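In response to reviewer comment 3 from the previous cycle, which asked for concrete evidence that the modeling workflow produces usable outputs, we include below a single protein chain processed end to end. The sequence was submitted unchanged, and the resulting structure tokens are shown without manual editing.
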Amino acid sequence: RSGQYSVIPRVAGGEITPQEMILMGAVALKYNLWTKITGAQRIGLFGANTWHLPEIWEDLVRGRTSFHNEAEKVSVSIETEGMESGQAYGKALRAVKSCVGTSWCR
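The workflow returned the following structure tokens.
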């Protein structure tokens, strides 16, 4: 309705690497997006303008971006394996709770 979109990369079972978290944060800063953890154990980037969508997905898929804001004293440059699109709708298994291993499950 507002002309803005959500961008939700795939985060299988809620497991995300530190590099992927940094990548998502840098992309959010670069395009002035707000973030939240969804009920499906993914991290959503919200408030994307239509004209930024191809650039946002290019940054996420190729796994590289950089952002510099001197006023806020923030500078980020990241290169990682990249991410793929998560399925927003469809007939799919969702909200599955997963165990992160024997060290963390109690």
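The radius of gyration is 15 Å. We consider this sufficient to address the reviewer's concern, and the full set will be provided in the supplementary archive.
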